Structure formats: structure tokens, C-alpha cells
Amino acid sequence: MAFPDPLPFVLVVARLCGLVLVSPIFGDGLVPARVRAGLVGVLALALAPVVPGPSLAAEPSGWTLAGLVAAEGAVGVLLGFVAQLVLAGVQLGGQVAGLQVGFGIANLLDPTTQAGATVVARWQQLAALLAFLVLDVHHVVLRAVLESFRVAPIGHVVLSGDVLVGVAARGAGLFGVGVRIAAPVFVVLLLVNGGLALLARTIPQLNVFAVGFPVNVGVGLVVVGASLPFTVRFLAGELDAMGGVLAALVETLGALAHG
Fold first, then answer.
1. Dihedral sign of CA atoms 53, 57, 61, 62 in order
2. Using CA of residue 183, residue 188, residue 194, residue 197, what is the dihedral sign?
3. CA neighbours within 13 Å on the CB side: how many for 13?
4. Paired strand residues for 116
């Protein structure tokens, strides 16, 4: 089998690398770099022979080639970033819930973002990743990037402000996801703390701080466990809608490429 042309191969690798760097599952820090590089290499070798190369009037210079690689990498990053938003919202909600429960002191290092995350946040994120795999959303992400090679051919990508504004607007939705994830714990603990405050007024000798911490932890863990089925159902709806969002982004990129 003949090795694919260097320029299409490099541009295909750039777009796939952008996706793999930031997308869920593929971009997780727990996935070894060799596995990610192997995935990019296998997909690039399969796609480069069938993907049409860029139509250039002359041999590209170093700056032109760098610009093409940056544009292709940006497309992959945008697709992976949009797919990552739901999981980022889940982690945000879990972080807020964990702080309310009282796990702010015992932070764990999140291997994805290399930042501190509470136990509840990590638990919620693992549940979201499991739902991501069970619903085959990783296949949806791969199909979106494969479709992007047909709709927005390599070397013809145009990134406008409208695309970035649309992605930013979608990013604002992660706060809504976080609020919905943290709402059960937040509301129940608000009621519990209100009850403890009334109890402290009734019994001044009661040490509310000594009693409140284990109560918050116990009630918070119970609420997190009890709300898990509803959380998974909510995540399933958000992840099902991700296919449409990625398809709309690919169509926008294709319209700009052919415009």
C-alpha cells in the first residue's frame, strides 16, 4: 500500500489531534499518550488516501503550511470542546455539591484538568463518562469529525466570529448543567442547615459546628446517591442532544468553507 501524500496526511493528523486533545474519553489524562497517538495514526492512515487534498496554486510555504495546520487543529479542538462541555458542567455541579457537603478540604487531583476536585465532583464525572460510553457518544464524536472531512474539506476551513460566538453560547450552557447537578444537594443541605440553626436557637448549649459537619456529610451522601438515577437520566438527554449540536457545528463550518 502506497503511503498517503504528505500534505493531506499532515492536515488530517492536525484535525484529529485537535479532537483527541480535548474531547471526552480520548483526551482524558488517564488515557496513555501512546494510545492517543496510535488512534490518531490509524485514523489518519485510513482517511488520508480518500480525503481530497487542498487545492493550492503553488507549493505552500512554511507560513502557509503552519496556517493550514493551525486551522485544521482548531476545527478538531472546537468539535472536542463542544463534546466536552456537558462533562465540564457535570464536574462543576459536583464540585459545588462537594463543597456544600464538606469535602472541600479533601480535594483530589483531576487527571483531566490537573486541578483539584472534590470526591463528589470526581464521582459525578466518572458517572458521566460511564454514561458517555454506554450511550456510544464517543462514536457520535468520531462520526462528527469524519463528516467534517466531507463537509469542510481540509485546506478550505474558514473560522469566523459567528462560529466562535456559537461555541461560546453553547459553553454558557455548562453552568445550567452544573446548577441542575448540584441543585438536589444544595436545596436539601440548605433546609438541613436551617433546621440546625433553629435547633441551636432552641438549645443554646448545643455545639452546632460539631453536630452540623457529620450531619451535612451524611445527608449529602444520601442525597447524592438518591439523586443518581435522575442525574443519569438528565445526562442521557444532554448527551443525546450532543449529536445535533455537533452536526450543526459541522454544517456551519461547511457553509463557511464553501461560501
1. negative
2. negative
3. 13
4. 109
Please tell me the distance from the alpha carbon of residue 182 to that of residue 86, in angstroms, as a whole number.
14
Dump pLDDT digits (tens) for 136-182. Answer: 888 888 888 888 888 888 877 777 777 777 788 777 788 888 888 88
Element (H, E) at 110: strand 108-110
Set of cell numbers at residue 238: 444532554
Question: What are the residue boundaries of the structural domains of the chain, listed by start?
Answer: 6-258
Question: In this structure, are residues 86 and 93 in contact, taking their beta carbons and an 8 Å threshold?
Answer: no
Identify residue 229 by its one-letter amino acid code.
P
Q: How confident is the model over 17-35, as pLDDT tens digits?
A: 988 888 888 877 777 888 8
Closest CA to 11 of 204, 196, 153, 215: 153
Which grid cell is 13? Answer: 493528523
* pTM of the predicted model as reported, rounded to 2 decimal places: 0.79
Q: How far apart are CA 59 and CA 147, in angstroms?
A: 27
Rounded Cα gap, residues 99 and 117, in angstroms: 10
Cell 492536525 found at: 14
Would you give the DSSP letter of residue 121? Answer: H
SS3 3: coil
DSSP secondary-structure letter at 48?
T
CA-to-CA distance for 211 and 40, rounded, in angstroms? 54
Taking Cα atoms as reference points, which of 89, 125, 88, 120 lies closest to residue 107? 120
Q: What is the DSSP letter of 152?
A: S
Q: Provide the grid cell at 62.
A: 512554511
